[in-house]
Amino acid sequence: MLSVMIVDDEILSIRMMESILDWSSLGIQIVGTAQNGMEALSQFYKLNPNIIITDIKMPNLDGIEFIKKARESSPETEFILISAYADFDYVKKAIELGCSNYILKPVDEFELENTLKKITAKISYKKAEEKNATKNWLQHEKQVIFRYMNTGTNPLAASKSASNLGIRFSSFALFDFILSDRSINEYIENNLQLDAQMGFIMERMTNVMSSYGHYVLFDYEDYKWTAILYDCEAQQLPACAEQMVAFFSEEIRMDINVCFSHVGSEMSELPQLYHRLRHLSRFSFFVGDEPILGYGYNCVETQFEQIDLMPFNKTMTAALQHNDIEQAAQILDEVLLLSGKADPSSLHLFIDFCYNAFCIIREKLSSENKLSADLQYILNISYKDISQISTIEELSIFMNRMLLLLSGGGKLSKPKYSSLVEAGIQYLHDNYDRNLSLEEVCTHLAVSKNYFSYLFKRETEHNLWAYLTDIRLNKSKELLATTEMKSYEIAYMVGYDNPSYFSKLFKKSTGQTPNEFRGLTK
């Protein structure tokens, strides 16, 4: 509620203005009155009102001088001048002081009310602008920190932004809060709820974290929120994770997985801790029904780098150079077996080993003219391609196929996705119009839900339900272009019980409403 002070040397005028309006309905509260300029100035310094209604002709200090002194202290205060004198000189002086609100006595209640409404609207607009400016500034500072955390670049800018936000890195940890959807309908409902309640959800998330330290919560992206919790204690991190899981389950009716890092003590550790957190989040699907995964809690970072793979590299190179495929396959199995002892951040060592072996195989295939036209793509396979192979099992299959080619035992086609993911995509295409659940899909494929969710996201770079949404939208485009069905009928046909949500989703995806899209295709 805004505050107002009334200044007039006639007490009856003050009482009249107090009584002629319903001030509370305007969102205004009278906080003080004064009968001369000096008294008004003293009250102004104490009360700092948003609005001042003041007479011009007053003893000790007139209204114009009072405004001058008050503006020196608070230039944002709004003034309404009231006088029995229709003197243009007064009006001119008031305008020069930034006061455009001038009312002649006797005060008309409707004129006063309209003037106050204009002023309250002006103040509200200014506050909204200030709030947006603060929000934009805060968003920029957070983006600079997140960019450094994600890439390790521009540490000086990140340090400045952290300082501006008051972040201390003497004791901090990183969190990922990952949304989990068990069916397409749950995915739709969660997205509707996020659209409607994102502000409330993030506010409640910060309330949870504030019990364990100070925080920076980044915006929701790629089905998760990331946060920095600082001034925190390592032993309190599991409790924070547990409380967050309980909040989502009990208040929001959503399921989440929570991953957290070790506690760091310097800002320079941010990129490394975030890199490890991403690995942990990537592997969180393998913990079964356990919604929390944290270093130092239920995940131990082994010093896998101490394992010396050099002897394996040497024997693998020798076996390949002598075309001893059986020996090479045995060495490969031994090395990949060791991967069971590795933590997620150590898997690059196995990728290095396999890539070195692959390069030798590729060179021999090329020199021995074993690359037919349909196998030429092997020449373009890069380290990145091999590093993106989803699992150790898939890596084993790929490497054994390469060894098979080297032995002359067959040809290899290059599918876009693994056979499991391809089968999953086909099932989505065959059943896109139903409320599919993760359990149904995985039962059909005879695979665990956690493993398939991870594998699907890794290979397609899409959440399972986002991929199904694309299938539904593509089918709806086809129906809009080739039939005269109503958009709500199409919504039902492609699996949406809520036509309004379908239209909103369609426009978000295409930039057009279903009817606009149809108009352009006719």
Written overview of the protein:
It is found in: Cytoplasm. This protein is of the alpha/beta class and 522 residues long. It has 4 domains: 2-125, Rossmann fold (3-Layer(aba) Sandwich), CATH 3.40.50; 167-294, Reverse transcriptase/Diguanylate cyclase domain (Alpha-Beta Plaits); 304-406, no CATH class; 419-521, Arc Repressor Mutant, subunit A (Orthogonal Bundle). It is built from 21 helices and 10 strands. α5 (109-151) crosses α6 (155-165) and α19 packs across α20. It is elongated. The model is unreliable at 303-307 (pLDDT under 50).
Descriptive keywords:
alpha/beta, DNA-binding, 21 helices, Rossmann fold, Alpha-Beta Plaits, 4 domains, five-stranded mixed beta sheet
Give a summary of the structure in a few sentences.
This protein has 21 helices and ten strands.
Write the layout of secondary structure elements.
Blueprint: E1 2-7, H1 11-20, E2 28-34, H2 37-47, E3 51-55, H3 63-73, E4 78-83, H4 88-96, E5 102-104, H5 109-151, H6 155-165, E6 172-180, H7 184-210, E7 214-217, E8 224-230, H8 237-252, E9 255-260, H9 270-283, E10 292-294, H10 310-321, H11 325-338, H12 348-367, H13 383-387, H14 392-406, H15 419-430, H16 438-445, H17 449-460, H18 464-482, H19 487-493, H20 499-510, H21 514-521
Parallel strand pairs: 1-2, 1-3, 3-4, 4-5, 9-10
Antiparallel strand pairs: 6-8, 6-9, 7-8
Helix pairs in contact: 2-3, 5-6, 5-9, 7-8, 10-11, 10-12, 11-14, 12-14, 15-16, 19-20
